[in-house]
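ligand=zinc ion
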Amino acid sequence: MTTDELKYVNPVFADPIKYLQFRDANLKDVIHGYESLDHIALTNPGSPDSVRPILGNSVVEMFFQMQLVGVELLQPKVIEDQLRMARILGYYMAYPTVNKMGFDQFRTGKTPVEVVSNDMTVGFLGESWRNAGIGLINKVEEHDGSIECEINEVGCSIKALDSKYCSLCSNLCGIAEGLTGVLWSGELEECGNAESGTCKIRIHPGDEPFVKDKLEKRDYADILDGLVKSVVDGVNPYPRKELGSDLTMTLSQVVNYLFENASPGHRILYHFSGMKVGEKMAELKPAKNMNEAVENLGKIFSENKVGLLKQDGDNLILEESLMASGVKNQKPQCAYLGKIIEGCLSKALGRKFSVTETKCLAKGDDFCEFACKRI
Ligand SMILES: [Zn+2]
Ligand SMILES: [Zn+2]
Protein backbone atom coordinates (compact mmCIF):
# COMPACT_ATOMS: atom_id res chain seq x y z
CA MET A 1 0.00 0.00 0.00
CA THR A 2 1.42 3.36 -0.96
CA THR A 3 1.30 6.37 1.29
CA ASP A 4 -1.28 7.87 -1.00
CA GLU A 5 -3.77 5.14 -0.30
CA LEU A 6 -6.24 5.23 2.53
CA LYS A 7 -4.53 3.43 5.32
CA TYR A 8 -7.19 2.96 7.91
CA VAL A 9 -10.87 2.97 8.44
CA ASN A 10 -11.88 6.44 9.44
CA PRO A 11 -11.88 6.67 13.23
CA VAL A 12 -14.67 9.24 13.05
CA PHE A 13 -17.21 6.48 12.93
CA ALA A 14 -16.31 4.93 16.25
CA ASP A 15 -16.60 8.02 18.42
CA PRO A 16 -15.67 11.51 17.23
CA ILE A 17 -15.01 12.89 20.71
CA LYS A 18 -12.67 10.03 21.59
CA TYR A 19 -10.89 10.55 18.33
CA LEU A 20 -10.39 14.26 19.03
CA GLN A 21 -8.98 13.42 22.44
CA PHE A 22 -6.62 10.95 20.82
CA ARG A 23 -5.52 13.63 18.37
CA ASP A 24 -4.99 16.09 21.17
CA ALA A 25 -2.81 13.72 23.13
CA ASN A 26 -0.79 12.56 20.16
CA LEU A 27 -0.63 15.43 17.77
CA LYS A 28 -1.12 18.48 19.96
CA ASP A 29 -3.21 19.88 17.20
CA VAL A 30 -6.58 20.47 18.74
CA ILE A 31 -7.67 22.11 21.93
CA HIS A 32 -9.30 20.64 25.01
CA GLY A 33 -12.91 20.88 25.98
CA TYR A 34 -14.98 19.42 23.18
CA GLU A 35 -17.10 16.93 25.14
CA SER A 36 -20.13 19.18 25.01
CA LEU A 37 -19.89 19.53 21.25
CA ASP A 38 -22.26 16.58 21.45
CA HIS A 39 -24.83 18.92 22.93
CA ILE A 40 -24.51 21.75 20.50
CA ALA A 41 -27.36 22.14 18.07
CA LEU A 42 -26.39 21.38 14.49
CA THR A 43 -28.89 23.64 12.80
CA ASN A 44 -29.42 25.37 9.51
CA PRO A 45 -31.13 28.63 8.66
CA GLY A 46 -34.48 27.83 7.06
CA SER A 47 -34.59 24.31 8.46
CA PRO A 48 -38.16 23.21 9.19
CA ASP A 49 -37.19 22.01 12.67
CA SER A 50 -36.23 25.33 14.14
CA VAL A 51 -34.98 25.40 17.71
CA ARG A 52 -36.11 29.04 17.96
CA PRO A 53 -39.76 29.72 17.03
CA ILE A 54 -39.36 33.49 16.52
CA LEU A 55 -35.74 34.14 15.53
CA GLY A 56 -35.07 30.92 13.61
CA ASN A 57 -31.81 29.01 13.36
CA SER A 58 -29.48 31.74 12.18
CA VAL A 59 -27.42 34.68 13.36
CA VAL A 60 -26.49 37.78 11.39
CA GLU A 61 -22.98 37.21 10.00
CA MET A 62 -21.63 40.54 11.34
CA PHE A 63 -22.40 39.49 14.90
CA PHE A 64 -20.54 36.21 14.45
CA GLN A 65 -17.52 38.04 13.01
CA MET A 66 -17.61 40.47 15.92
CA GLN A 67 -17.55 37.52 18.32
CA LEU A 68 -14.24 36.40 16.75
CA VAL A 69 -12.54 39.75 16.13
CA GLY A 70 -13.19 41.05 19.65
CA VAL A 71 -10.96 38.33 21.07
CA GLU A 72 -8.29 38.71 18.37
CA LEU A 73 -7.99 42.40 19.20
CA LEU A 74 -7.05 41.50 22.76
CA GLN A 75 -4.65 38.74 21.72
CA PRO A 76 -3.82 38.37 18.00
CA LYS A 77 -2.29 34.93 18.65
CA VAL A 78 -5.82 33.65 19.25
CA ILE A 79 -6.17 33.43 15.47
CA GLU A 80 -4.18 30.18 15.65
CA ASP A 81 -6.70 28.72 18.08
CA GLN A 82 -9.49 29.80 15.80
CA LEU A 83 -7.93 27.85 12.96
CA ARG A 84 -7.91 24.79 15.22
CA MET A 85 -11.51 25.46 16.16
CA ALA A 86 -12.52 25.69 12.50
CA ARG A 87 -10.76 22.39 11.90
CA ILE A 88 -12.52 20.69 14.81
CA LEU A 89 -15.81 22.09 13.60
CA GLY A 90 -15.21 20.79 10.08
CA TYR A 91 -14.24 17.40 11.38
CA TYR A 92 -17.16 17.29 13.74
CA MET A 93 -19.70 18.42 11.16
CA ALA A 94 -18.62 15.75 8.70
CA TYR A 95 -19.69 13.16 11.26
CA PRO A 96 -23.54 13.30 11.23
CA THR A 97 -23.66 13.57 7.45
CA VAL A 98 -21.31 10.71 6.76
CA ASN A 99 -22.98 8.66 9.43
CA LYS A 100 -26.36 9.26 7.85
CA MET A 101 -25.33 8.71 4.25
CA GLY A 102 -22.82 5.93 4.82
CA PHE A 103 -19.09 6.12 4.44
CA ASP A 104 -18.99 3.81 1.42
CA GLN A 105 -20.93 6.32 -0.63
CA PHE A 106 -18.11 8.82 -0.24
CA ARG A 107 -15.33 6.34 -0.61
CA THR A 108 -15.40 6.08 -4.36
CA GLY A 109 -11.71 6.69 -4.77
CA LYS A 110 -8.47 5.07 -3.79
CA THR A 111 -6.65 8.11 -2.49
CA PRO A 112 -7.71 10.72 0.06
CA VAL A 113 -7.68 13.32 -2.72
CA GLU A 114 -10.08 11.25 -4.82
CA VAL A 115 -12.43 10.78 -1.88
CA VAL A 116 -12.56 14.50 -1.15
CA SER A 117 -12.89 15.64 -4.77
CA ASN A 118 -15.49 13.12 -5.96
CA ASP A 119 -18.95 14.32 -7.02
CA MET A 120 -20.65 12.93 -3.95
CA THR A 121 -18.40 14.84 -1.54
CA VAL A 122 -18.47 18.05 -3.52
CA GLY A 123 -22.26 17.83 -3.77
CA PHE A 124 -22.65 17.26 -0.04
CA LEU A 125 -20.26 20.06 0.83
CA GLY A 126 -21.84 22.51 -1.60
CA GLU A 127 -25.30 21.85 -0.26
CA SER A 128 -24.37 21.97 3.40
CA TRP A 129 -22.35 25.19 3.05
CA ARG A 130 -25.15 26.82 1.08
CA ASN A 131 -27.75 25.75 3.66
CA ALA A 132 -25.61 26.95 6.54
CA GLY A 133 -25.00 30.31 4.84
CA ILE A 134 -21.24 29.72 4.86
CA GLY A 135 -20.60 30.19 1.15
CA LEU A 136 -21.24 29.08 -2.42
CA ILE A 137 -18.77 26.56 -3.81
CA ASN A 138 -18.24 27.29 -7.48
CA LYS A 139 -15.19 25.17 -8.29
CA VAL A 140 -13.40 22.10 -6.94
CA GLU A 141 -10.53 20.72 -8.98
CA GLU A 142 -7.75 18.25 -8.45
CA HIS A 143 -4.21 19.33 -9.37
CA ASP A 144 -1.05 17.33 -8.67
CA GLY A 145 -2.27 15.69 -5.53
CA SER A 146 -3.93 18.76 -4.09
CA ILE A 147 -7.44 20.14 -4.31
CA GLU A 148 -8.27 23.65 -5.41
CA CYS A 149 -11.51 25.21 -4.28
CA GLU A 150 -13.22 28.46 -5.10
CA ILE A 151 -15.97 29.75 -2.87
CA ASN A 152 -18.15 32.83 -3.32
CA GLU A 153 -20.14 34.90 -0.84
CA VAL A 154 -18.16 33.65 2.12
CA GLY A 155 -19.87 34.65 5.35
CA CYS A 156 -16.97 34.26 7.71
CA SER A 157 -14.33 36.48 6.15
CA ILE A 158 -13.78 40.08 7.13
CA LYS A 159 -14.79 42.10 4.12
CA ALA A 160 -12.90 45.05 2.69
CA LEU A 161 -9.70 43.88 4.29
CA ASP A 162 -6.61 43.51 2.15
CA SER A 163 -5.60 40.31 3.86
CA LYS A 164 -6.40 36.61 3.94
CA TYR A 165 -8.72 36.24 6.79
CA CYS A 166 -11.35 33.50 6.77
CA SER A 167 -11.04 30.14 8.52
CA LEU A 168 -12.56 28.23 5.62
CA CYS A 169 -9.29 26.55 4.72
CA SER A 170 -8.82 24.86 8.06
CA ASN A 171 -12.54 24.08 8.21
CA LEU A 172 -12.21 22.31 4.88
CA CYS A 173 -9.17 20.39 6.16
CA GLY A 174 -11.26 19.23 9.13
CA ILE A 175 -14.01 18.01 6.83
CA ALA A 176 -11.47 16.24 4.61
CA GLU A 177 -10.00 14.57 7.66
CA GLY A 178 -13.45 13.45 8.77
CA LEU A 179 -14.01 11.89 5.37
CA THR A 180 -10.65 10.23 4.86
CA GLY A 181 -9.12 9.57 8.28
CA VAL A 182 -5.85 11.29 7.35
CA LEU A 183 -4.61 14.74 8.25
CA TRP A 184 -4.86 17.57 5.73
CA SER A 185 -3.07 20.88 5.38
CA GLY A 186 -3.71 23.84 3.16
CA GLU A 187 -3.36 27.44 2.23
CA LEU A 188 -5.79 30.24 1.71
CA GLU A 189 -4.52 31.63 -1.59
CA GLU A 190 -7.01 34.42 -1.85
CA CYS A 191 -9.71 35.61 0.49
CA GLY A 192 -13.05 37.02 -0.58
CA ASN A 193 -12.79 40.63 0.41
CA ALA A 194 -15.40 43.04 -0.82
CA GLU A 195 -13.79 43.40 -4.25
CA SER A 196 -13.27 39.83 -5.42
CA GLY A 197 -15.92 38.12 -3.31
CA THR A 198 -14.13 34.82 -3.90
CA CYS A 199 -11.97 32.74 -1.56
CA LYS A 200 -9.42 30.44 -3.20
CA ILE A 201 -8.21 27.52 -1.15
CA ARG A 202 -5.74 24.72 -1.82
CA ILE A 203 -5.66 21.66 0.45
CA HIS A 204 -3.64 18.45 0.38
CA PRO A 205 -3.04 15.44 2.64
CA GLY A 206 -0.27 16.22 5.11
CA ASP A 207 0.38 17.64 8.52
CA GLU A 208 1.75 21.17 8.36
CA PRO A 209 0.79 24.22 10.35
CA PHE A 210 -1.59 26.63 8.66
CA VAL A 211 -0.09 29.79 7.26
CA LYS A 212 -2.02 32.93 7.98
CA ASP A 213 -1.42 36.61 7.39
CA LYS A 214 -0.66 38.27 10.65
CA LEU A 215 -2.64 41.34 11.51
CA GLU A 216 -1.61 44.03 13.97
CA LYS A 217 -3.72 45.06 16.91
CA ARG A 218 -4.50 48.32 15.13
CA ASP A 219 -6.04 46.40 12.20
CA TYR A 220 -8.21 44.40 14.55
CA ALA A 221 -9.31 47.55 16.36
CA ASP A 222 -10.46 49.13 13.08
CA ILE A 223 -12.23 45.96 11.98
CA LEU A 224 -13.98 45.60 15.32
CA ASP A 225 -15.17 49.21 15.28
CA GLY A 226 -16.64 48.66 11.81
CA LEU A 227 -18.32 45.42 12.84
CA VAL A 228 -19.87 46.83 16.01
CA LYS A 229 -21.20 49.75 13.99
CA SER A 230 -22.76 47.35 11.46
CA VAL A 231 -24.28 45.31 14.26
CA VAL A 232 -25.69 48.41 15.99
CA ASP A 233 -27.01 50.04 12.79
CA GLY A 234 -28.31 46.77 11.38
CA VAL A 235 -26.59 47.57 8.09
CA ASN A 236 -24.27 45.15 6.32
CA PRO A 237 -21.98 47.25 4.10
CA TYR A 238 -21.15 44.16 2.00
CA PRO A 239 -24.48 42.42 1.43
CA ARG A 240 -24.44 38.95 -0.12
CA LYS A 241 -26.63 38.59 -3.22
CA GLU A 242 -27.65 34.98 -2.91
CA LEU A 243 -27.01 33.93 0.68
CA GLY A 244 -28.29 37.06 2.41
CA SER A 245 -27.10 38.21 5.82
CA ASP A 246 -27.48 35.06 7.91
CA LEU A 247 -25.26 32.17 9.00
CA THR A 248 -26.17 29.06 10.93
CA MET A 249 -26.15 29.79 14.65
CA THR A 250 -24.14 26.59 15.14
CA LEU A 251 -21.02 28.62 14.25
CA SER A 252 -21.64 31.08 17.06
CA GLN A 253 -22.39 28.26 19.49
CA VAL A 254 -19.24 26.30 18.69
CA VAL A 255 -17.01 29.38 18.98
CA ASN A 256 -18.78 30.30 22.22
CA TYR A 257 -18.37 26.82 23.60
CA LEU A 258 -14.72 26.49 22.65
CA PHE A 259 -13.72 29.93 23.99
CA GLU A 260 -15.49 29.12 27.26
CA ASN A 261 -13.70 25.80 27.59
CA ALA A 262 -10.35 26.01 25.82
CA SER A 263 -8.58 27.39 28.91
CA PRO A 264 -9.22 29.88 31.73
CA GLY A 265 -7.19 32.42 29.75
CA HIS A 266 -9.38 32.06 26.66
CA ARG A 267 -12.47 32.46 28.81
CA ILE A 268 -11.16 35.67 30.41
CA LEU A 269 -10.25 37.18 27.02
CA TYR A 270 -13.60 36.20 25.57
CA HIS A 271 -15.59 37.72 28.44
CA PHE A 272 -13.49 40.88 28.40
CA SER A 273 -14.07 41.24 24.66
CA GLY A 274 -17.84 40.97 25.28
CA MET A 275 -17.62 43.81 27.78
CA LYS A 276 -15.65 46.00 25.35
CA VAL A 277 -18.18 45.29 22.61
CA GLY A 278 -21.03 46.25 24.99
CA GLU A 279 -19.26 49.53 25.81
CA LYS A 280 -18.86 50.35 22.11
CA MET A 281 -22.54 49.63 21.56
CA ALA A 282 -23.48 52.11 24.30
CA GLU A 283 -21.16 54.74 22.78
CA LEU A 284 -22.93 54.39 19.44
CA LYS A 285 -26.38 54.32 21.05
CA PRO A 286 -26.35 56.46 24.19
CA ALA A 287 -29.20 56.12 26.67
CA LYS A 288 -30.57 58.40 29.39
CA ASN A 289 -31.75 55.68 31.75
CA MET A 290 -31.93 51.94 32.34
CA ASN A 291 -35.15 51.49 30.34
CA GLU A 292 -33.70 53.18 27.32
CA ALA A 293 -30.40 51.27 27.57
CA VAL A 294 -32.24 47.94 27.70
CA GLU A 295 -34.50 48.98 24.85
CA ASN A 296 -31.50 49.89 22.67
CA LEU A 297 -29.71 46.65 23.44
CA GLY A 298 -32.91 44.65 22.95
CA LYS A 299 -33.24 46.11 19.45
CA ILE A 300 -29.61 45.25 18.62
CA PHE A 301 -30.07 41.70 19.94
CA SER A 302 -33.31 41.02 18.08
CA GLU A 303 -32.09 42.54 14.79
CA ASN A 304 -28.97 40.38 14.90
CA LYS A 305 -30.94 37.31 16.03
CA VAL A 306 -29.07 37.07 19.31
CA GLY A 307 -32.21 36.75 21.43
CA LEU A 308 -35.27 38.56 22.74
CA LEU A 309 -34.31 40.77 25.66
CA LYS A 310 -36.65 42.32 28.21
CA GLN A 311 -36.53 43.86 31.63
CA ASP A 312 -37.97 42.17 34.71
CA GLY A 313 -37.26 44.33 37.76
CA ASP A 314 -33.52 44.23 38.42
CA ASN A 315 -33.15 41.25 36.12
CA LEU A 316 -33.02 40.96 32.39
CA ILE A 317 -34.67 38.05 30.65
CA LEU A 318 -33.36 36.70 27.36
CA GLU A 319 -35.56 34.38 25.35
CA GLU A 320 -34.32 32.33 22.40
CA SER A 321 -30.67 32.93 23.33
CA LEU A 322 -28.26 32.46 20.44
CA MET A 323 -25.78 30.60 22.64
CA ALA A 324 -28.25 28.36 24.49
CA SER A 325 -31.07 27.46 22.09
CA GLY A 326 -30.89 23.78 21.20
CA VAL A 327 -27.85 23.36 23.49
CA LYS A 328 -27.84 21.01 26.46
CA ASN A 329 -25.31 21.64 29.18
CA GLN A 330 -24.91 21.54 32.94
CA LYS A 331 -23.53 25.05 32.90
CA PRO A 332 -25.06 28.34 31.73
CA GLN A 333 -23.78 29.19 28.24
CA CYS A 334 -24.45 32.89 27.84
CA ALA A 335 -21.71 34.60 29.88
CA TYR A 336 -20.46 36.38 26.72
CA LEU A 337 -23.89 37.91 26.16
CA GLY A 338 -24.00 38.80 29.88
CA LYS A 339 -20.71 40.65 29.46
CA ILE A 340 -22.09 42.59 26.49
CA ILE A 341 -25.01 43.61 28.70
CA GLU A 342 -22.61 44.53 31.52
CA GLY A 343 -20.39 46.70 29.29
CA CYS A 344 -23.38 48.35 27.66
CA LEU A 345 -25.22 49.23 30.90
CA SER A 346 -22.05 50.40 32.66
CA LYS A 347 -21.08 52.71 29.81
CA ALA A 348 -24.59 53.98 29.08
CA LEU A 349 -25.46 54.77 32.70
CA GLY A 350 -22.00 55.89 33.81
CA ARG A 351 -21.72 53.49 36.72
CA LYS A 352 -20.35 50.01 37.08
CA PHE A 353 -22.73 47.06 36.74
CA SER A 354 -22.07 43.43 37.49
CA VAL A 355 -24.12 41.02 35.37
CA THR A 356 -24.43 37.31 36.15
CA GLU A 357 -26.46 34.68 34.33
CA THR A 358 -28.75 33.09 36.92
CA LYS A 359 -30.94 30.92 34.65
CA CYS A 360 -30.08 29.42 31.29
CA LEU A 361 -32.10 27.68 28.62
CA ALA A 362 -29.11 25.36 28.04
CA LYS A 363 -29.45 23.81 31.49
CA GLY A 364 -33.19 23.32 31.29
CA ASP A 365 -34.61 26.67 32.44
CA ASP A 366 -37.45 28.19 30.40
CA PHE A 367 -35.34 31.20 29.45
CA CYS A 368 -32.04 32.86 30.30
CA GLU A 369 -31.98 35.37 33.12
CA PHE A 370 -29.32 37.89 34.05
CA ALA A 371 -29.07 39.51 37.47
CA CYS A 372 -27.83 43.08 36.96
CA LYS A 373 -26.36 44.67 40.07
CA ARG A 374 -25.05 48.22 40.39
CA ILE A 375 -21.73 48.12 42.20
ZN1 LIG B 1 -11.62 33.66 2.71
ZN1 LIG C 1 -28.28 31.25 28.70
